Each structure stands twice: as structure tokens, then as C-alpha cells.
Amino acid sequence: MGCEDPGAYAEDGEGPVREVRVRSFLLDRVCVSNARFAAFVDDTGYRTDAEQAGTAFVFAGFLPADFPPTRGVAAAPWWREVPGADWRHPEGPWSDLDGRAEHPVVQVSWHDAQSFCAWAGLRLPTEAEWEYAARGGLSQQRFPWGNQLTPNGEHRMNVFQGRFPDRDTGKDGYTGTAPVDAFPPNEFGLHNMTGNVWEWTADRWSVTWHRTASPVDPQGPPDGDERVLRGGSYLCHASYCWRYRTSARMGSTPDSPTGNVGFRCARTAGS
Prior knowledge:
The chain is of the alpha+beta class. It contains four helices and eleven strands.
């Protein structure tokens, strides 16, 4: 587990490379889709954090040219706060889910993902489980299929091509999210473990905890304000966010929904 690639981000705590053992578990082969999340909402009447707040963050490239100035993110000004953005309206109140039933649900917080898992009788994977699954049986490879981003010129995941943040050429076939099973699976049968949308995990964020954590079924620290996201998204670009790799990681507060974050569920084997 982990990475010491010279191009990786030391501040993310990907290293050191270490041996970790996880007990048997099952993981959804795809992220939770809009259709699957809608079934949960229809059954429970659940309202997401974004719906309760009445606002969420949207990539500026999806906004109309005449969209009024709103609050941005200081370190990432391409994110803009959009009133009325939520899982049903990922880019704002003028958007909808037409044609995206089998795309990953986005604008969902860690709390929302936890609530879905509880309803489904499942759970979020630990960070160690997620990385084991993403690697698909390979050792110390950057991507779920190997070290080459586009082997033989073939796109294997949905990330940003072109000049970020101004122009996504969509050479991989998509600008924005792709269907949950859009690209071939890894050797474990799992689709889109890198790219498309970041995925919530169960663990709290730390860049040092893993250095002393148990090597067997490790979990994040008992305290902390953020949770771990894995996998990168359709907005990742090598010029600023080379995090569409099996070892890459990021932290975010559990009440933060954005347009490039989703989740998939896990279950302990035999449970």
C-alpha cells in the first residue's frame, strides 16, 4: 500500500510503501448511480446535506457565461458555490439527470453516503480495502491496469484532457461524469476505480497515522475533521492534480458535497 513515486504528492501522505493485510470483503463493482440513489430517496424521503443547505459547489466550466459572481474556493477558483445545486441538479437548478440515470450520483457528502449504506445494509470501505480493490491484484502500479495512462493509445478512465481549467477536449469520450461502467474493469471486475468521481471511504484523514497503524485491517485515526477520498475524478489533470492513481488520496470535510464526488459500498465477507 502507498507510493513513493517522485511525481506523487508528499503532502498527501501516500508514502511510505508498506505491507498491509485486509480480511476478505466485497465491494460494489460500480459507484452508486443516480438511479440507485433515487431508489433510496424514494423509499426513505432522505434529504441530502446539499438539499438542506440549499447550495453546493460546481465546476465553473459548467456554469452559464452570465452566471453571477458567487463564493469560490481560494485555492481552487474553478469551484463556485451555486444555490440550488444538489444530487438531482448537479450543475445547478437549471440542470437535471436526463440521460444520467446510470452515471454516479454526485453532490453527496460523506454523511449522505453513510445514510445510503445504512439503508442498503452495507458500509463504506476502509481506505486500505479501497486501495487493495483498486489495484486489482497488481503491485505498485500507478493505475488499475498498469503504469501506462493510455496503453496503446486507449483511454481507460475519465479524466481531464486539454488545458485545465479552460478546455476539456473530452478525448476519453466524456466531459463531466461517465456511466458507472463506462470503461473496462480491472482484474477484480471493478469499474472506474480511478477517474470519473472521487469516492468517500470510511477513514478519517491523516498524513501520518498510517506510519504507526496496525498492518492488519488498518483504519484511520479515531479523531479528525476530514474523511478520506480516493480515486480522482473527471477534473483531475496532470498539470495540477495527478491524483487519478491507485495510491492517491485527498481529505475533505464530511459535510462537503461537490460535483465530482460519489461513493461505492462494501460489505464484510460473511456478514
